[in-house]
Automatic annotation (TrEMBL):
Protein keywords: ATP-binding, Leucine-rich repeat, Membrane, Nucleotide-binding, Phosphoprotein, Repeat, Signal, Transferase, Transmembrane, Transmembrane helix
Region (Disordered): 289-321, 616-655
Protein name, entry field: Protein kinase domain-containing protein
CDD domains with a match to the protein in the record: STKc_IRAK
Gene3D superfamilies reported for this sequence: Phosphorylase Kinase, domain 1 (3.30.200.20), Ribonuclease Inhibitor (3.80.10.10), Transferase(Phosphotransferase) domain 1 (1.10.510.10)
Protein location: Membrane
Organism: Rosa chinensis (China rose)
GO MF entry, a single one: protein kinase activity
Keyword set includes Transmembrane: yes
Recorded superkingdom: Eukaryota
Transmembrane segments annotated in the record for this chain: 259-283
């Protein structure tokens, strides 16, 4: 009795924790006050509409930790912030890791309370109108990795105290008014450094000489290192190929011969002239490239994807003359989004290919500031920009916890990009079929049920509230949250491709009528969902050649097996170790079979499917918590198929 009670309580607790934990409306009250104090004192564009009555963790640009107990990052690039950063606001975000206020119109100096953000790792203040001396507060942020103050109006000298920042990997101070000599910065971790276009003078310290000349150019009077020598007698720049002095081999004298001196001088002058010539040519070329001010977003996008395509994780720090305001605006965000980045950020992101699908290639893009998103690069889009925009409008409105939100899109002649949330737990396809039999944890029955139900809910929401046909239901488009709640992705894209869609698209999930008409409908979605349920039950991927059963038609196969009364043989071997699940498996099988009816009208609607699965679940909770057979604590009387055995379970035909 008490065991059973504890089980139920335990189950409820687990359910609450897993099912709702992530969405509990806890929030960092103090951090929220600090954010509000900041935004209320800083004029800004409409895009930042922080609603006082919802959790700060859901605000544009705000990211919290897993417990929602503090604000972890704040990204407000290019949101039209104007004026000075109000003191004692942002400095109160004591747990902040990343702060980006770049590309705004912030003025004045950086407030001293920034020193209180002691765990700050990345600070991006570039491209503002900040002024004053190098902010002393920043030299106290011992954990800083990247500090970007470039393209502001900072003056004075660069303090030696930057040496306090021992974790610094990137320091960007270019395009300011810094003057005086460069301090010796000896942080061993420094990989990126730029002080070009300031008013610095004096010699480049040896510790910085390893950086290229473009990191130093455009200053008042810097010398040494990669630039010209500081020695007034040999004003030849180091990189110029100085002809080695022709010293006659037999002369061992340490003094240089007259000929050698002449050779050096002539060589130096020649080298200098050569460099001057190259410089002139470069300048001219540069000017020619930049004079026609035509924004080229396709190039930018193509480049970002080219980076991704190469599969390298590049993190370019500076793309010269990259983006104009016009380009930036072309990445269209939907209202209520949590992201705040632009095309330029995507361009700089490191990207890896997640998968190549029939509609295009997906990339996981990790933005410089730490945000991870999925960028889908569509191919063979046939619709016009207007039609595209209209469909995006429809898709962008869809909000449901079991639907992967579309956050932004980009349309140009050559590139069509969609930006989605990144789901950390991967796809059902990988979970179900990835490295089978090689010691991975099989997906247990409770989680399969959870996935079936949550995916059904997501799809039903698409159909009923969104009035959108998904059109591409398959296990690789069911993405999982860490708690195994499923979300459906890649919905509603068919209208973009016309009817000439490649025939190879997800053949195994395709309803029979779609093969002929090439038109997807709500009912064809239901069919595909039925195949997905069969996949969950059988552990077999439809039409997956790698299974050795090339081109199996899952519904037909299941039908044939069930007809022969071998029902137990249908189910995934991996499910045989769980107890008391046969009845549910059979019930779910019946729902799946209803969904894959050949005649569309005989298939249930998605909402009905949800209801049927929910009804199953209700019966299940009465039974208490189900356990794996290696766990003896269960309060039920069901029979126990021995592990790995394929005893036919009692297949009671359910009404
Ligand atoms: C703020 O959020 C509440 C609750 O979601 C909503 O009722 C209200 O309309 C929102 N206010 C604004 C200004 O968006
Ligand atoms: C959440 O809070 C608990 C207890 O306060 C703590 O043990 C845990 O580490 C926190 N988790 C995260 C992700 O911060
Ligand atoms: C930092 O925070 C402490 C209290 O936590 C406060 O007394 C101090 O004034 C703050 N420092 C700055 C520079 O604002
Ligand atoms: C930068 O400061 C100088 C004087 O200190 C001022 O003349 C100039 O307008 C400022 N530039 C910007 C972009 O604020
Ligand atoms: C550098 O750090 C030390 C301790 O880490 C501190 O005492 C000193 O004041 C810092 N210097 C500056 C100029 O910030
Ligand atoms: C750098 O410029 C300042 C004035 O701007 C001058 O006082 C100083 O002597 C210069 N240093 C060198 C090494 O030229
Ligand atoms: C430094 O910044 C300047 C100006 O933005 C840029 O032209 C140059 O390529 C940069 N150099 C390096 C090494 O980043």
């Amino acid at each position: 009795m008490s065991v059973r009670f504890r089980c139920v309580v335990g189950f409820l607790a687990t359910f609450l924790l897993l099912g709702c934990g992530g969405r509990v409306n806890s929030e960092p009250t103090q951090d929220k006050q600090a954010l509000l104090a900041f935004i209320n004192q800083t004029p800004h564009a409409n895009r930042v509409q922080w609603n006082n009555s919802v959790s700060a963790c859901s605000w544009v640009g705000v990211r919290c930790d897993g417990n929602q107990s503090y604000v972890q990052s704040l990204h407000l690039p290019g949101v039209g912030l104007v004026g000075p950063i109000p003191p004692n606001t942002l400095g109160r975000l004591s747990q902040l890791r990343v702060l980006s206020l770049r590309s705004n119109k912030l003025t004045g100096s950086v407030p001293p309370d920034f020193a209180n953000m002691t765990v700050l790792r990345n600070l991006y203040l570039q491209d503002n109108e900040l002024s004053g001396a190098f902010p002393p507060a920043l030299t106290l942020l011992a954990r800083l990795n990247r500090l970007d103050l470039s393209s502001n109006n900072f003056t004075g000298s660069i303090p030696f105290a930057v040496n306090n920042l021992t974790q610094l990997t990137g320091l960007f101070l270019q395009n300011n008014e810094f003057s005086g000599a460069l301090p010796s910065i000896s942080s061993g971790k420094l990989q990126s450094f730029n002080v070009s276009n300031n008013k610095l003078n004096g010699s480049i310290p040896a510790s910085l000489a390893k950086f290229p000349s473009s990191a130093f150019t455009g200053n008042l009077d810097l010398c040494g290192g990669p630039l010209r020598s500081c020695n007034p007698f040999f004003p030849s720049p180091a990189p110029a190929p100085v002809t080695p002095p022709i010293v006659p081999a037999h002369k061992k004298s340490k003094k240089l011969s007259t000929a050698a001196i002449i050779a050096i001088v002539v060589g130096s002058i020649l080298g200098f002239c050569l460099l001057l010539l190259i410089l002139l040519l470069c300048l001219r070329k540069h000017r020619r490239q930049h004079s026609p001010k035509s924004p080229k977003p396709p190039v930018t996008a193509a480049r970002s994807v080219a980076v991704a395509e190469a599969g390298t994780s590049s993190s370019k720090d500076d793309i010269t003359g990259a983006s104009t305001e016009a380009e930036r605006n072309k990445l269209v965000f939907f209202n209520g989004g949590i992201y705040s980045f632009d095309l330029e950020d995507l361009l700089r992101a490191s990207a890896e290919v997640l998968g190549k699908g029939s509609v295009g290639t997906s990339y996981k893009a990790v933005l410089e500031e730490g945000t991870t998103v999925v960028v889908k690069r569509l191919k063979d889009v046939v619709v016009t920009k207007k039609e595209f925009d209209m469909q995006m409008e429809v898709l962008g409105k869809i909000k449901h916890e079991n639907v992967v939100p579309l956050r932004a899109f980009y349309f140009s002649k050559d590139e069509k990009l969609l930006v989605y949330d990144y789901m950390t737990a991967g796809s059902l396809s990988v979970l179900l079929h990835g490295s089978r039999g090689s010691g991975r944890t099989p997906l247990d029955w409770d989680n399969r049920m959870r996935i079936a139900l949550s995916a059904a809910r997501g799809l039903a929401h698409l159909h009923v509230a969104g009035k959108v046909v998904h059109g591409n239901i398959k296990s690789s488009n069911i993405l999982l949250r860490p708690d195994h709640d499923a979300t459906v992705s890649d919905f509603g894209l068919n209208p973009l491709f016309g009817t000439s869609t490649p025939p190879n698209r997800v053949a195994g999930y395709r309803a029979p009528e779609v093969v002929e008409t090439r038109k997807v409908t709500f009912k064809s979605d239901v069919y595909s969902f039925g195949v997905l349920l069969l996949e969950l039950l059988t552990g077999k991927a439809p039409n997956q050649a790698s299974l050795g059963e090339e081109g199996i038609d899952l519904p037909r196969w299941v039908q044939s097996v069930v007809r022969e009364e071998w029902t137990a043989e249908v189910f995934d071997v991996e499910l045989m170790r769980y107890q008391n699940i046969e009845e549910e498996m059979v019930q779910l099988l019946q729902i799946a079979m209803a969904c894959v009816s050949t005649v569309p009208d005989q298939r249930p609607g998605m909402q009905e499917v949800v209801r049927m699965i929910e009804d199953m679940n209700r019966a299940e909770t009465d039974d208490g918590l189900r356990q794996s057979s290696d766990d003896p604590s269960k309060g039920s009387d069901g029979h126990t198929p021995p592990q790995g055995s394929r005893t036919p379970p009692s297949v009671t035909p359910t009404p």
